[in-house]
């Protein structure tokens, strides 16, 4: 294959198909007919000697070859846009955009809500809406633009070359209890801490991390109840002697809001990364790039306050 065989518009079409996973939506994005997009896809398949996309219901799923091509295509188009774009700098205050950020409730309280407050002043017509994060669906959600950001606290390797990952900061674990809890006055031993009633929040990764730390000392966490959210956990520990272990950044917010006591943990400090994930098709999107910077700024403020 020679460069002269490749029309730049074919790369634009490939990029749109990678983002939208639909001939119809790609056609709408580019202002072309669906038949023109289908014809371009047929040409692309011929050029690259690969199907590039296979149909799964109403969606087009990229092949391994298409995912391999995606980063290079994005870089090429970014360079072309840079050459053709006017030199006027991006102004977030003039942008009108809607984004979705997937996270646990911790990510919403720690990062998404502070970002919303910033946007009211810096970019009043840019909106970032929260959506629940589902570990097994996050990559697909990013590829299909159901989510534009994922705030991840699992720390697992991401086996998706088209998904970008940036660490925001390392969080730790903190344990909260009601004011006047016996452990608030006297640091517990590891054994008494493990044997106390613990409230596990199913939407957060804190219990497995706590279990791992206790297991290193031959102990197991006594989970008295499982709850759906940190807020429910707060309500539980306010009325009895149970303990609630959360990411420190979230615990700091709830500690202030509900007047809870922080318990000294008789364990080695447990670190885990809080990360921001996005699809590479948004690498060159100026508003998306600006929002990534704002997420990073909020993260630095959290680290500084800690």
Summarize the entry for a quick read:
With 306 residues, the chain is α/β, with parallel strands linked by helices. It has helices spanning 8-20, 23-30, 34-48, 64-84, 105-122, 138-143, 182-185, 190-195, 206-215, 230-237, 248-258, 286-305, and strands spanning 53-56, 59-62, 97-103, 126-132, 149-152, 163-177, 198-201, 223-227, 243-247, 261-263, 271-279. It contains 12 helices and 11 strands.
Question: Would you kindly provide a written description of the structure presented here, covering whatever features stand out?
Answer:
This protein has 306 residues and is α/β, with parallel strands linked by helices. The protein contains twelve helices and eleven strands. The termini are far apart.
């Amino acid at each position: 294959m020679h460069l002269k065989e490749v029309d730049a518009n074919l790369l634009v079409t490939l990029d749109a198909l990678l983002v939208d996973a639909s001939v119809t939506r790609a056609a709408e994005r580019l202002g072309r007919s669906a038949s023109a997009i289908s014809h371009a896809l047929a040409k692309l398949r011929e050029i690259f000697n690969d199907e590039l996309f296979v149909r799964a219901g109403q969606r087009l799923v990229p092949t391994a070859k298409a995912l391999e091509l995606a980063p290079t295509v994005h870089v090429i188009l970014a360079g072309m846009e840079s050459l053709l774009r006017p030199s006027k700098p991006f102004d977030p205050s003039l942008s009108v955009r809607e984004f979705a950020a997937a996270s646990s409730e911790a990510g919403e309280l720690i990062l998404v809500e502070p970002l919303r407050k910033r946007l009211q002043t810096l970019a009043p017509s840019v909106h970032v809406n929260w959506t629940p994060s589902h570990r097994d669906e996050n990559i697909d959600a990013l590829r299909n633009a159901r989510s534009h950001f994922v705030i991840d606290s699992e720390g697992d390797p991401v086996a998706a070359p088209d998904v970008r990952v940036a660490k925001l900061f390392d969080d730790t674990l903190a344990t909260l209890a009601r004011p006047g809890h016996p452990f608030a006055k006297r640091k517990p031993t590891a054994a008494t801490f493990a044997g106390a009633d613990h409230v596990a929040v199913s939407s957060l990764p804190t219990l497995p991390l706590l279990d791992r730390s206790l297991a290193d000392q031959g102990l197991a966490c006594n989970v008295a109840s499982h709850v759906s959210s940190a807020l429910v956990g707060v309500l539980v520990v306010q009325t009895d002697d149970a303990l609630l272990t959360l990411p420190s950044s979230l615990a700091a917010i709830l500690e202030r809001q509900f007047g809870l006591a922080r318990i000294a943990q008789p364990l080695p400090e447990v670190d885990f990364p809080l990360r921001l994930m996005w699809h590479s098709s948004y690498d060159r999107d100026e508003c998306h790039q600006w929002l990534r910077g704002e997420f990073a700024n909020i993260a630095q403020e959290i680290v500084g306050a800690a």
